[in-house]
Amino acid sequence: MDLLLAAAQVALAPAALVAVMAGCLLGVVFGAIPGLTFTVAMALVVPMSFSMETAPAIGLLLGTYIGGMTGGSVSAILLGIPGTPSAAATVLDGYQLTRRGKASLALGTAVVASAFGGIVSLIIMVVSVDMVARLALRFGPAETFGLLVFGLSTICGLAQKSLVKGLIAGILGLMVMTIGIDEIEGAQRLTFGTVVLQQGVSLLVAMIALFAVPHVIDAFVQHYAGEQKPQEVADVRAELPTIRDILRDFWLMLRCALLGTGIGAIPGTGGPIAAFLAYAHARKSSKRPERFGKGEMAGVVAPETANNAVTGGAMIPLLSLGIPGDPATAILLSGLLIHGLIPGPMLFIQNPGEIYQIYIAIIVAYVAVVAIQLLGIRFFVQVLRVPAHLLAVAVIVMCAYGAFAIRNSVFDVVSVAVLGALAYGLMRVGIPLTPIILGLVLGPAIERDFRTAMILSEGDPSVFVASVPGAVFLGLAALVVGAQLLRSTRATLSDRRTEEKRRASVTPSE
Amino acid sequence: MQKGIIASVALSAAMAVGLCAPARAEFPEKPVEMTILFGSTAQTIGQLLAELMSRHLPQPVVPVARTGAGGAVGYQHVHGTAPDGYNIVWNSNSISTVHHGGGLPFDYTAFAPVAKISVEVPAIAVRADSGWETLSDMAADIKSAGRKLKVGASGRGSFTHLATEAILAALDLSDSAIHVPYDQGRAPVELLAGRLDAALQWPGQFVSHHEAGTLRILCVTSAARISQLPDVPTCAESGAGEMDIVMWRGLAAPAGTPPEAIARLEEAARLAAESEEFRKAAQTIGFEVEFAGHEAFGELIARDDTIIADLMGQLGLTEQ
User: Fold this and answer.
1) For a surface tag, which of A249, A300, A331, A428 has the fewest beta carbons within 10 Å of its beta carbon?
2) What is the pLDDT of residues A189-222, one digit of tens each?
3) What Cα–Cα distance (Å) separates residue A295 from each residue in A69, A235, A243, A436?
4) A367 burial level (CB within 10 Å; 0-12, 13-18, 19+)
5) In the predicted model, is pLDDT for residue A275 greater than 70?
6) Which family, according to UniProt (chain B) (predicted)?
7) Separation CA A269–CA A272 (nearest Å)
8) Residue A369 domain boundaries
9) Do residue B185 and residue A195 have CB atoms under 8 angstroms apart?
10) B58 pLDDT exceeds 70?
């Protein structure tokens, strides 16, 4: 208790508080602007934290991380362009809500769900860090592969109407991510002997291209074709969700928070995967699944809760095992190292005070994020007053800048243009973009875990069903796919039967 | 005021005399860009070095991350810039691994060495309950059991993979081991979980588990023990015969950069590397400060390049 009080004294000192809030603000801004992400913001903040005291330095980094994770929902909801890859699932229903004039409501709900997810994951981390870390250890490559395949199978339900078009899209996504150097064998794939293509397509670049560029092209085409868009977004009231609205989805939020924490604790997964799984879960468990994709609030709540729960989940392997689960936690790790905090089992023994400081900083960060975002909604929604073609100019400039900022590479800017133009073409021929994103997000992880598992088992495929989690997840995946196939064949059969009946009834009159 | 007038008079006089004489009296006249090739610790050390160097130069050194393709992207960028000292690269042995692996059409001779800053020494670890105290224990056990040793390191052709293969060859285990590639430092977890028998990574990833008594660091691959782990033997002491495999990091500029500029940067780098702050960071991040001037650094790069080329050739990793 003395330790906790002492930690609180340090973590709640003015300098530390200011640092957390500054981090949150920076994170929200970077997260909210399409193209800029919190990973970039964190890389910018790290050098600043070198010369700071430990508590403010940790606070600044955590604030940026958490602010960025929640900020990603702002542009996802308002513009249909995710500010960060983790917010890609939020677009599906969030943008539809904006088109129905419920932008501020969706934004408010998203930030509350985010904070809920984050705090629940923090609580889980505090009470069961050792147990969760031990469980996460059981997820080796084979088990993670099973989990990812299960994720892919549930998410397949999101493919609209045509299964074939969905598959085409998914495979395109997988193919884009194979460009570059293969991390396992070090082989060059699809590089055409050039150095630039060796860097491959960054997930973020592909994300910007797929979401932002078709939007922008569409806005210009409509403007020059003189098409008058119906004034669907004229309503920019700053309407905030009531407590009752939020409590309605309480159990869903709790389930998604647990899911996000679990996914976050498994190294090599991360926010985007958790968000899509949560979205699929919300749709499955909903009483009105047909309304998903058309502006259902649960479709915003679920991914936002889950992707923020990942922040707490990812802290578990980071602090207790010293393993960063994603690029953002890798930056956090170097920030901790430079202040002499070496994550791992000894951290809890040698630096219990700093551990408490981290917990307190996370709570402060969520309070700050909720305050910043709820105050900010008024201003955010003003974006909707800007005519679409003017907004499109701003968006494309930010995207080009954001794409460049990831690795300071002109190649990435060119990639955005090329992939974006392709995405627009695909959209016009009715190929859905969501499965492409799934291919992008899940593809590299599935490939890596499959190959590592096969190397570990010396080429014996039974490794995938040798452990309980692996067998369970692959079994579930088989069930899901089987049920979907059954349903679709039954649907085709009954279609054919009605057709035959109609023909039968038509023939006599001929 | 007086000074201002004098300065402006002097300036106009200088302009009147003409700018025909190369005006590089004072390098640097604009910020120096330091390209960083990798994320995580390489980036952190590079950022800190840039900040410390800026204190000893009239213009700041700006760290810019150009990651990807095992460093090839950043090397190519710096290679393509003018050799005027305003573009330097935070380089490492990766110049040799990437070139010989077929990732880059040019080799280390495309760069002029500025200064060697630090070295990082890989360490090999096993589970504490494995009963292995030395490399010899491990080798004897594997040979008598007749099974294969699963060793985790980074991807094929990476520095930790080369170090792994060198140790295996020294222990005569090359044919009875499987290299399991991992990214993002996942190898220690896989080792803890029992899916691997050993892992070769940077000591920072093992140290907390080593102290907690769950993993045991068998040895470090350098010729001498390292300051971060004074109680851990070298691999030579542990039964691997003679061995000195370390990854150096340093600064280099495009070949043809004027010697004055290199000398100025070398001096700033020396002051930065010898500062108290850099030494403290070395302890916590887990690297050894080992400064060397541009001449000694150049010899080291050339020597290492032949060693790496040989090793990669033996392993069939070189691009034909």
Assistant:
1) A428
2) 888 888 888 888 888 888 888 888 988 898 888 8
3) 22, 16, 20, 21
4) middle
5) yes
6) Belongs to the UPF0065 (bug) family.
7) 8
8) 2-504
9) no
10) yes
Peptide linkage before B28 cis (omega within 30 of 0): yes
Which residues of B fall within a CB distance of 8 Å from A455?
178, 180-181
To probe the interface with B, which of A199, A266, A319 has the most B CB atoms within 10 Å? A199
Question: What token pair was written down for A253?
Answer: 């939020």
CA distance A350 to B282: 19
pTM, two decimals, is 0.83
Domain count, chain A: 1
Alpha-carbon torsion angle B154, B157, B158, B164, nearest 10: 70
Q: For residue B181, list its beta bridge partners.
A: B153
What pLDDT band is residue A230 in, cutting at 50, 70 and 90? low
Angstrom distance (rounded) from CA A409 to CA B76? 11
Distance CA A352, CA A335 (A): 18
Map out the domains of chain B with their CATH numbers: 28-119+247-314 (3.40.190.150), 123-240 (3.40.190.10)
Considering only CB atoms, A199 lies closest to which of B64, B69, B195, namely: B69
- The answer to whether the CB atoms of B39 and A333 lie below 8 A apart is no
- List, in sequence order, every residue forming a beta bridge with B87; answer none if it has no partner: B33
**ipTM reported for the complex surpasses 0.85:** no
Q: Give the C-alpha separation, B20 to B24, whole Å.
A: 11
- The shortest C-alpha distance from A456 to chain B (Å) reads 7
In a domain, residue A469? The reply is yes
Q: Nearest residue of A to residue B97 by CA position?
A: A186
pLDDT band at residue A1, thresholds of 50, 70 and 90? Answer: low
For residue A510, tell me if it sits in a domain. no
Q: Does the structure show a pLDDT above 90 at A406?
A: no
Q: Check residues A289 and B254 and name the one with the higher pLDDT.
A: B254
* B190 chain-A contacts, CB cut-off 8 A: 140
Probe site for chain A from B75, B189, B214 (most A CB atoms < 10 A): B189
Contact A452 B181 (CB under 8 A): yes
pLDDT at B7: 55
Q: Amino acid identity of B317? A: L
Q: What is the dihedral of CA A92, A95, A99, A103, to 10 degrees?
A: 130
Rounded distance between C-alpha atoms, residue B171 and residue B169, angstroms = 5
In the predicted structure, residue A236 carries a pLDDT above the cut 80? no
Paired strand residues for B126? B198, B216
Mind listing the pLDDT tens digit for each residue in A151-181? 888 766 666 567 778 888 888 888 888 898 8
Of A43, A50, A334, the CB nearest to B41: A334
Which residues in chain B are closer than 8 Å to A138, comparing Cβ atoms?
193
Separation in Å, CA B63 to CA A199, A499, B60, B83, B263? 19, 68, 10, 18, 20
pLDDT of A39 above 50: yes
The answer to whether the CB atoms of A184 and B181 lie below 8 A apart is yes
What is the reported pLDDT for B26? 78
**Residue B22: predicted pLDDT:** 47
Q: What is the pLDDT of residues A317-347, one digit of tens each?
A: 888 888 777 778 888 888 888 887 888 888 8
Residue of B nearest to A141 (CA): B190
Residue with tokens 């279609």, as numbered in its chain? A495
Tell me the β-bridge partners of B216. Answer: B126
Residue of B nearest to A269 (CA): B184
3-state secondary structure at position B35:
strand
Minimal Cβ distance to B39: which of A198, A330, A346 = A330
pLDDT tens for residues B256-300? 999 999 999 999 999 999 999 899 888 888 888 999 999 999 999
User: What is the structure's pLDDT at B19?
Assistant: 45
- Any domain includes A509: no
